[in-house]
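Sorbitol-binding protein /mannitol-binding protein
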Amino acid sequence: MQRFVRTALVAALATAALAAQAQELVIATVNNGHMIEMQKLTPEFEKANPGVKLKWVTLEEGVLRQRVTTDIATKGGQFDVMTIGLYEAPIWSRKGWLKPIATDAAYDVDDLLPAIREGLSYEGKLYAAPFYAESSMLMYRKDLADKAGVQLGDQPTWEQVKAFAAKVHDPKAGVYGMCLRGKPGWGDNMALITTMVNTWGGQWFDMAWKPQLESKPWKDAITFYVDLMKQYGPPGASANSFNENLALFNEGKCAQWVDATIAASFISDPKQSKVADKVAFAQAPTAVTPKGANWLWSWNLAIPSSSTKADAAQKFIRWATSKDYVNLVAKTHGWHAVPTGTRKSTYANPEFQKVAVFAAAEKKAIDSANPNDSTLAKSPYVGVQYAAIPEFQAIGVGVGQQMSAALAGRSTVDQALKTSQTLAEREMKKAGYYK
């Protein structure tokens, strides 16, 4: 009996010692579906890594950005793993704020889609690992196109989609010719609008960092956007962003919609969409040039330089962004639920192809986006639907408000662009880009 008690005591002490030694990784992430699913799979990681415990801090996107930016800039050390966007990755890696991601043969870094891998690399090293990624594309009602005798092709022009909108716009029947983002924000309406400006041949800044908001491409793109939405958009479009347009499309109220490729899995799901069997996909529309016509975004896991638990953080990131993780989600919830946009192997998988009717169009959009060459004239910045400089957030928010006002009829296009140019110049001068 005494021997049994001693053995049990030794075992208990050993377990307590192991628990005491276990490292707690604090992970900051965004409160969207794919990340919530990752948290639910925490026991799978902890079982395979008994010396590591995961502590999640889940925040809304705006709050997440604020918290992680403050923490990393002040070297606060509050988080060991951060969820960051494609916008932050090049800025923070250049500043030395992130540790390089340590990959091995099993991780297969060459399996990452080139556009995403390039966007997360600095001087040849990966500084954040992609969890899921997206581009933008045209999603439309094939039944309405067929009825109207319209063929949009694989990469239509904005003029073609406007003509389609004119033919099928029928507000009395509850169908609007075009749904697009109008809600102000650098990641809301400006994500779409920047791609429109790009394809009209415009840019945010020239090579001297001078804002270009009163240039002809900006005027042409914004005039087209405002006219299109005033004629064929839903009422109150200036308040709509991704979620509002998704709801409209799923209800059968949008003839077409240009937005994030991630939407394709929702509008083609009969559990969510009333028109799931009537949708088709094409590349984002073009105007003067195909350059920068579709955006590029990813949510990624990164390690701040201030983390003292880098080894454990590397293990977690390799696990959460691996081929094995994709397979784990597929096994647990089915292939329709896997995070997309990051790995060639996902798109090559026959089981994924069966459920993802949008897969080919999504991958083509992501592959074609180039953050280092997204404008017709040469630009000094990295990014497709944003400029990867710290000042861009304030500029993007301010310009977004002006574009939303023009769409709502509270301002003319010319006045909105003039005000935008003034505020952009003020921010760039204040930051010391030029006098």
